[in-house]
């Protein structure tokens, strides 16, 4: 059997057969790029020891279109997204699993580029991809590649972060500017050219989280405002905790290029997806210390306190606008941006 | 917002938006069916304690077509398949995660049926689905529903099963008749009617595995012969352990209806997928005891010793046929059955 043609070859149905061609795809592409002691064992599962503590598990399916974009691709996004979901429990992400659904005819060169990017993201984050699976569907029954990643991690002793822990008086922080990822993807898709100045913020946030929970273990909850953006994520948290929220628009960091693109596109940056930002809610007395810790970390340099948790049996999120008015930040009702992650 | 129309409604792009419609789909369909304390927390990840021991993680993407078949559907299959991958390490499966990729226009009634079936399979197996994710792709960019499940479990103290542990002289056992799943799916797809007499063998095997490893902790390795069937799986194990294998065709259990269907279809049952069978390799001196334990379990009543591990630097799997000849059981080279799981 000759080697995979990673320059001109394409994904074929036979690569999903479970036979020799499947084994070759795994060996010459996936196992080569992800190389580690667990994959080298060649079993259908990985075995490892976890440090003591509560275990965290998160899974995310990725269907972003287009597959490649300024600041990343579906591969790096699939690694960052799941690492972040694990990290938002205050946990240290330890291991990743990856399931691929490939479409017949997809260029192996593109697949190799995606897999290399995943491997680089996993290496950089220090979270190995230890097990996986690959399936192939017929042309027209998929869209290039979908990647589902699952992560496990461990929560340090004494932490119990959850979306239902916000209390009136708590402060709401965000780690940096919002809307970068969503605007980049939409601009690219529509051929608008804004993405030249922006780029996705896709990144793994577990380093920032570790610094934050070590300094301020009193943090109530962390969440990354991905699909649905800051607006929806705050509504989710308000509902879970049965509280209201009062935001101050002037303090919410939005990059100029993102603001301009949103105006052009008729989008509200509050509802645009992020892939490298987090929301933190913590007791008021720890907010300044938490902000200082975030500012001292490369991923939190633009962090800001953007609002306060308030008592509200209706769980409304409201925002004082830059012009002094007060507006509702409701759940996103319509479809804003399909296939953004 | 009115309730989901689970009778006449369909999956819409907005169900993947991360907004209110996404939250509704999760609340009224997934969380309702899978209901447990972890999902009720409403976080993007689940937190739990694991019993002490080495942790096992496995992931499987499911793209089977058709989605419903005699003996199961993509939902129950996705639960059984991943539980089995975890169990094959000798582990007790503890928790599952599920990622869904839905196609726009897919009937919500079908989705509900699949989700109910997953919930029932998880309940029956005692392995809760504690976290998940849902994405939606445009019509023609998917195929109804793809489900990626990931499982974690824990290996009892003292066990170290792996595909590289087979040694010359070991015995090879299978837990029951082979080929049922693959023949059922193919017959259904081709409208041949054989499936009326057969049905998929899809089932979770962790109960059988627990009985086996408790009685015979000396087992070298377990593996479920899914895609690629018994033939490929034994070749994988032979390669991993750097050994050869000698099978005896007369001892390999194949149901009459499966044998007849395979003859009609020109298939070799050795390469047809199973979803509820396992291969065990164990030292010769424990083989009879292991067989007795399997026979005593409802999932192992038709278990058989089907061959012996031999020394062979070329790692060939060979089989003495019922007519006394010896044939090579090579890796499956061609595509036998696409989208079988």
TrEMBL record, chains A, B:
Sequence ranges assigned to domain PurM-like N-terminal in this UniProt record: 42-155
InterPro entries the UniProt entry points to: HypE (IPR011854), PurM-like_C_dom (IPR010918), PurM-like_C_sf (IPR036676), PurM-like_N (IPR016188), PurM-like_N_sf (IPR036921)
Domain of life where this protein originates: Bacteria
Domain PurM-like C-terminal: 167-318
NCBIfam families: hypE
Family indicated by similarity: Belongs to the HypE family.
Record-given protein name: Hydrogenase expression/formation protein HypE
Native species: Azotobacter bryophylli
Name of the gene: hypE
């Amino acid at each position: 059997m000759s080697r995979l043609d990673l320059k001109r070859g394409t994904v074929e149905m036979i690569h999903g057969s479970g036979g020799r061609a499947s084994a070759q795809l795994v060996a010459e592409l996936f196992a080569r790029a992800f190389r580690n002691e667990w994959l080298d064992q060649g079993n259908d599962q990985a075995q490892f020891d976890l440090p003591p503590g509560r275990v965290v598990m998160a899974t995310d399916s990725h269907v972003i279109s287009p597959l490649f974009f300024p600041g990343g691709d579906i591969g790096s996004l699939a690694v960052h997204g799941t690492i972040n979901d694990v990290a938002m429990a205050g946990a240290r992400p330890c291991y990743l699993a990856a399931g691929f659904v490939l479409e017949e005819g997809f260029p192996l060169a593109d697949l190799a580029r995606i897999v290399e990017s995943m491997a680089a993201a996993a290496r950089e984050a220090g979270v190995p991809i230890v097990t996986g699976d690959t399936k192939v569907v017929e042309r027209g029954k998929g869209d290039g590649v979908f990647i589902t990643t699952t992560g496990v991690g461990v929560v340090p002793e004494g932490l119990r972060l959850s979306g239902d822990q916000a209390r009136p008086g708590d402060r709401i922080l965000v780690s940096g500017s919002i809307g970068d990822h969503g605007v980049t993807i939409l601009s690219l898709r529509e051929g608008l050219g804004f993405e030249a100045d922006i780029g996705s913020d896709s990144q793994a946030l577990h380093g920032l989280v570790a610094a934050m929970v070590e300094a301020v273990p009193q943090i109530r909850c962390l969440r990354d405002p991905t699909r649905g953006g800051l607006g929806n994520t705050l509504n989710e948290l308000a509902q879970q905790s049965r509280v209201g929220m009062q935001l101050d628009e002037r303090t919410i960091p939005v990059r100029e290029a993102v603001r301009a693109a949103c105006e052009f596109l008729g989008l509200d940056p509050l509802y645009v997806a992020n892939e490298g930002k987090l929301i933190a809610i913590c007791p008021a007395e720890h907010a300044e210390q938490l902000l200082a810790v975030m500012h001292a970390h490369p991923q939190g340099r633009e962090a800001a306190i953007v609002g306060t948790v308030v008592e509200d049996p209706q769980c409304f999120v409201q925002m004082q606008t830059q012009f002094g008015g007060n507006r509702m930040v409701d759940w996103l009702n319509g479809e804003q941006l399909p296939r953004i992650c």
